[in-house]
Design a protein that fits this description.
Length: about 325
């Protein structure tokens, strides 16, 4: 039977990784402080935990002194709350937040983990990618190795659009086959599985054929995602088929997800309603009410901004060379 994570032998084996984690957290705070960011804290138990279709949330409740109960959920990201603060004039801001995602657990996933999120008003996608690389350079050594893959942080990052990645590694025109699963399968030379949607096939090809090539010798920014795969991002003014979204890969690991933020409340409401209908179709659950407070903040006037969510535990793995997320958690299992 495995030893519990508090056991002296288990803790001693993880202490080198955990000390890296503590130093990393201090370095991250110093980086943002030097750039004029304010660290914020937002509620963890919220009326709406997020609207991503495939994420499962932890349910809880607030009980009032008179016994009345209000349903709440542990948030899957502090994004909605931090954007409310942007609308109120708080930015630029960052947060090291505990977040919860049910039904997750692997060497790279934990049901409870730490997310580093930051938002800068007026920043473009290029600005945010440059700042993200600067964060890596300030908090990691010039070369890192994790799970058998080495990456030179001091090298110029690779910038690759999803369309370029699918053309090069899948052999398919991603945007020309959008929403047509048969066409994408034919172009990719893949067999379409029973009941497999275009979205399902897109992610299967991304996982199997594209991601193994990313973030190897240098960091990779995978940019310009199909608009349907970026519910909180602004469409690219130069090509509305794609959104201003990027993901970052280091040591072959997906490390961060970022948007040029959508600030149109009406469009955001429509996207949320489409996502909620899709979630109900797939999982049959009503879930939670729309976050009307968040939509009201957008309608009030959230400034143009870019924001990013970076898996801090994965960054700690990369910084320390740990092989499993459980190695960089003080207590708990990955």
């Amino acid at each position: 039977m495995p030893q519990p994570s508090w056991h002296p032998e288990s803790l001693a084996a993880r202490l080198p990784f955990l000390r890296h984690r503590a130093r990393l957290a201090a370095a991250v705070r110093a980086f943002f402080d030097a750039r004029g960011y304010v660290e914020v804290e937002t509620p963890y138990a919220v009326p709406a935990p997020g609207e991503e279709v495939h994420l499962s949330a932890f349910a809880t409740a607030r009980r009032a002194p008179d016994g009345a109960e209000t349903p709440l959920w542990l948030h899957t990201s502090p994004e909605f709350a931090m954007k409310k603060l942007l609308a109120g004039g708080a930015g630029p801001i960052f947060q090291l937040a505990r977040v919860w995602r049910n039904e997750e657990g692997s060497d790279l996933h934990a049901a409870e983990f730490t997310m580093l999120e930051w938002y800068r008003p007026g920043a473009s996608m290029d600005d945010l990618m440059a700042e993200t690389h600067a964060l890596l350079a300030a908090t990691l050594p010039p070369e890192v190795r994790c799970r058998g893959v080495a990456t030179r942080i001091d090298r110029e990052p690779e910038h690759l659009t999803l369309a370029e990645a699918f053309a090069g590694y899948v052999g398919a025109d991603l945007l020309a086959t959008a929403d047509d699963a048969q066409a994408l399968a034919h172009a990719a030379g893949a067999r379409l599985r029973g009941g497999e949607s275009w979205e399902d096939l897109f992610f299967r090809l991304l996982l199997e054929r594209v991601e193994p090539h990313l973030g190897r010798e240098r960091p990779t920014f995978l940019t310009h995602w199909p608009a349907a795969q970026a519910a909180l991002a602004r469409r690219d003014p130069a090509d509305p088929r794609v959104a201003e979204r990027f993901e970052l890969y280091v040591c072959g690991i997906e490390l961060a997800n970022a948007f040029v933020e959508l600030t149109d409340a009406a469009e955001q409401r429509a996207r949320f309603e489409a996502d909620r209908a899709r979630r109900k179709q797939l999982y049959g659950a009503e879930g939670w009410p729309l976050d009307e407070s968040f939509l009201a903040a957008l309608a009030h006037g959230m400034p143009a901004a870019s924001g990013i969510a970076l898996g801090f535990d994965r960054l700690a793995m990369i910084a320390s060379g740990a092989n499993r997320i459980s190695d960089v958690l003080w207590l708990g299992e990955g």
